[in-house]
Amino acid sequence: MSSRKESLGIHRIASIHIFVRDLERSLEHYLNKLDFTEVAVSTPDFEVEHRARASAVEADGVRFMLIEPLGSKGESFQWLAHHPEGVGRIVFDVGDAEKAFTLLTERGATPLTGIERRNVEGGVVTWFDIATALGDTLFRFVQHEGRTPIMPNMARLDSPRGGTNRFGVSHVDHITTNFLTLQPALAWMEQVMGFERFWEIEFHTQDVKKGQVGGSGLKSIVMWDPHSGLKFANNEPAQPFFKASQIYLFYLDHGGAGVQHVALAVSNLVTAVEGLRARGVQFMPTPGRYYDLLPARLNELGVNEVEEDVEQLRRLEILVDGQKDRSYMLQIFMKDAASLFNDPQAGPLFIELLQRKGDDGFGGGNFRALFESIERQQQIEGRL
Q1: What CATH architecture is 169-380?
Q2: Whole-angstrom distance between the N-terminal and C-terminal Cα of the chain?
Q3: Considering the domain 10-162, what is its CATH architecture?
Q4: Number of C-alpha atoms within 13 angstroms, CB side, residue 139?
Q5: Average pLDDT of every residue of the chain
Q6: 18: pLDDT confidence band, cut at 50, 70 and 90?
Q7: Per the confidence metrics, is the pTM higher than 0.85?
């Protein structure tokens, strides 16, 4: 086993940049449906510099930068020329940007900028960008003092508008990316980022026997930064029926490898889902048989005490999983943006909500349930 690499000094995910074609549509979803708060908007200087307009929306420790191109020469326009809407950049808070830059370049990273310094919100902010193995998604590393700054030339609103985070979102739990092949990305995460393997699973939706012509599968490996605890789940399609896998279809829909979903932790998933459903938020369906088998499956896992009522979980279609002697977790997955907005160009990105009740894993049973749920939707749409 290789020795643990020196830490890049990552503290947390500061923000996630989502490139969108319709800023108002995205704002309406995050503010009025998900109860995020708009805290900043782009200034004329920002719009000239980036050839884009933007809004920053937050819920506790989660910040999304929604960026819509203006004209045809900016970064967001170029990204959207190759992809539907999606995650173009993940921004990390770091303790020492120069040290992180040195470590990364020594390990073979490809910087897209030098070390930049700007005065932002009354303090000097230092940052740089690198290319990644996550398709066209970039990583940015930002060093600052005090509260996490928004991008230069973004103006904080004196009276933030929108929601109040009534659904209890707290932080980004993990980010999941889909690939055609995992090994280059895993090697990059290990050798360049210093991440380590945390969890993995491989399955097929049915046992493939002679004469069968359906089903699909995946292989998933979670990498994590042991210093900050940040986790990145990574999926590839599995044989046989490689091109029937929903991972492969994501690759086609997205125009290459990219972020499939962002998982947000919430304080109480049952009340959050009740409230979100009341606002019209749509989630991926779970068949009733999942809940018929749930008590026996939890017993096999050694999860003998679940506080929530199974019938309530069935009604809300919340998934449950766990590991022996490590309690359990609750999860649910929103429909992807293309489905929510009825627009293929909104893209296959979706949001997961989860509540950890002592289990820091990824729920093998839930993982399979999610995979099968997406596959059923694609069958309904005539894609499989």
Answers
A1: Roll (3.10)
A2: 41
A3: Roll (3.10)
A4: 26
A5: 92
A6: very high
A7: yes
